[in-house]
Specification:
By secondary structure, this protein is of the alpha/beta class. The chain is built from ten helices and 13 strands.
Length: about 290
């Protein structure tokens, strides 16, 4: 009887020990599983955060955006000698040629889009264009609304009148009774407003010249670089001339506010000035005297 009791007790103890062993093993397995799940969740969260950071950086980088789509879209107007079409319908000019070279340096192609100059900031922010590169004066408005490159050309606003009456308009006081044509949203319009002149806004500076040539406006205010190329003997407007300069200013290229392309263009300007290619391009279009040292 005692022997049977001892055997039973031993068996019960063995079963108890086996049960305890299974419970410990189960707890260890559960802990290991929970730890693995936690580590996996942390890894997934880290990966997601890294991906989000990369996506945000890409979204904020105009350089990455342009290189990803493979084109640099340049907003321009018809403005010799900076941007105009040759006999084959291709956009050429000092700005156009430099834009092509810059795009090539980024590994993309260039696309030129004619814009309404008065809407240039809206076009830029709406991403229908990537930059404004068209003899753009670095006004306070432009600099506050765009990320601008360093200045690359000097310029001035000048008065255009028929050559046979030019002697009558040699100072700002003599301009008071004239009717002017100016490009909407331009530095020329800014000068006309500042002088309280009677003016009509037109789409482009080339249109302002046509207004004077047709006699529908007495005078125009345009960029001196355009005047040198488009007005006077040997040009399409031989009967027009420019008289007084109204200011002095500088040209720059505008990108979206905060764009990293502005710094990239400054690097390109510095390199092309140093190796002589910028000046060589300027000489092609007769604007070498206006080029700003980089």
């Amino acid at each position: 009887m005692k022997k049977m009791f001892a055997t039973t007790a031993a068996l019960m103890m063995a079963l108890s020990l086996v049960g305890c062993g299974n419970t410990a093993s189960s707890e260890e397995t559960t802990a290991t599983t929970e730890e693995a799940v936690t580590e996996e969740a942390v890894a997934e969260e880290t990966t997601t955060e890294e991906a989000s950071t990369e996506e945000a950086a890409s979204a904020e980088s105009d350089l990455a955006y342009v290189q990803e789509k493979g084109t640099l879209v340049v907003g321009i107007t018809d403005f010799a000698p900076m941007d105009y079409k040759d006999e084959n319908g291709e956009w050429v000019g000092f700005d156009a040629d430099m834009a092509k070279a810059f795009a090539e340096s980024l590994g993309v192609t260039v696309e030129f889009v004619e814009i309404d100059w008065d809407n240039k900031i809206m076009e830029l922010d709406g991403k229908t264009i990537d930059c404004v590169w068209n003899g753009m004066t670095l006004t306070d408005e432009v600099k506050s609304a765009m990320e601008c490159s360093n200045a690359y050309c000097n310029n001035a606003q000048v008065v255009i009148v028929p050559a046979d009456v030019a002697d009558n308009y040699q100072d700002t006081e003599s301009l008071a009774e004239l009717t002017f044509a100016v490009e909407a949203g331009s530095a020329g319009e800014e000068q006309a407003t500042a002088l309280s002149l009677n003016f009509t806004p037109v789409k482009a500076q080339s249109d302002a010249l046509m207004e004077v040539a047709a006699g529908t406006s007495d005078a125009a205010i345009i960029d001196s670089l355009m005047a040198a190329a488009m007005v006077g003997e040997g040009t399409g407007y031989a009967d027009l001339t420019y008289t007084i300069g109204l200011n002095s200013e500088e040209y720059g290229v505008g990108f979206r506010k905060g764009s990293d392309l502005a710094a990239k263009l400054n690097e390109f300007f510095a390199a092309s000035y140093a190796d002589g290619t910028m000046m060589e391009c300027a000489e092609t279009y007769g604007v070498q005297a206006a080029v700003v040292e980089q």
